[in-house]
Amino acid sequence: MKTGQYDMMDVEGGSPVKMWTQGVPVEQAAREQLANTARMPFIYKHIAVMPDVHLGKGSTIGSVIPTLGAIIPAAVGVDIGCGMMAAKTTLNARDLPDNLAPLRSAIEKAIPHGMSPKTRGYRGRDVGSWHDAPSTVDAAWMQLKDEFDAICEKTPKLKNTNNHRHLGTLGGGNHFIEVCLDEEGAVWFMLHSGSRGVGNAIGTHFIELAQREMRTHMANLPDSDLAYLREGTSHYDDYVEAVGWAQKFARMNREVMMRNLIAAVRTVIAKPFETHVEAVNCHHNYVQKETHFGKEVLVTRKGAVSARAGELGIIPGSMGARSFIVRGKGNAESFHSCSHGAGRTMSRNEAKRRFTLADQERATEGVECRKDSGVIDEIPMAYKDIDAVMRAQDELVEVVHTLKQVVCVKG
Known about the structure:
Elements: E1 2-3, E2 6-9, E3 17-19, H1 28-38, E4 47-54, E5 61-67, E6 70-71, H2 73-76, E7 83-92, H3 101-110, H4 135-154, E8 176-181, E9 186-193, H5 196-216, E10 229-230, H6 234-266, E11 279-283, E12 285-292, E13 295-302, E14 304-306, E15 312-315, E16 323-328, E17 337-339, H7 348-354, H8 357-363, H9 386-392, E18 397-410
Parallel strand pairs: 3-4
Antiparallel strand pairs: 1-2, 2-3, 4-5, 5-13, 6-10, 7-9, 7-11, 8-9, 8-18, 12-13, 14-17, 15-16, 16-18
């Protein structure tokens, strides 16, 4: 059923699902997953679905889940606080070198990226972590350390995780660092990452705790990844504390990377320049308390960005496609949210089966980036059409800047 710009999906025995997906594909498996979440008894009013929606683990990516009295750790996921940061500079396209390879190389040397293979018996350092963390990382960690130590007193297993050594690092998968040009030729720096190894450990631990609690209470769930923690319990309080810290870590992670990115660019471009002429740092995998329709609720954004009236956000396209700096319109029905990107149309394995290295090279023509088999799963054709995604949510956000990458670093 269509109502204005969104489609309504009625769920038998559950809350409604409002979908800003007109003109973009939505897989049946994602619809079924949304229906399962909508049947949880603590959903507040309805679930809002963004146009980049696709099947996820636990809950559907591109969904906004408001809850009362409970929280679903797997809906937040294990990349807690994953999000974007972008900064406009006083550089212009003509200030960039003709050969962008040294610029990409300088960025790759300045910021650890990728990850070591998770093979049995591997004991080496994760290539995506610091060997000797620089002073900027040490100083940032000291702002997080005391709270983390307090969390570890309750959950000692989190202490032996990659935390300090992952602060200011990129990771792999769809995480990236880019140098972009906007519609007027201004140079922007943009990056995408989250809470890294420590966030993964926190998410995994509390997902397991929630599932164990559900088994204890013989809860009948449509999906084990919808296991939840009830407000008023010690596990709930511990999770809220830990997830809040992981979201701080993620934001700090992006800030440290941005500082190191700027320093790396200065080693290649001699012209003095200013940064943060305009700047945005926003989560898109997180949970926080918000007031909606006059009531304080927990809002979990699983691949969605806050888009309150006047609030700036970032909607990245895929590798080789345009990205957007947007301003929220404060749409109440979407719980003041918008999409976090284009959204995948196929799995990573399917993309590797379907596309070739030649396809990847053609799709990223004009971008200084990796062009090897290791990033075929990030090929633009594995994602939805970003222009269709933007049209589907034009009542949620307005476009402030359109960015096109010229350098892209991936792990």
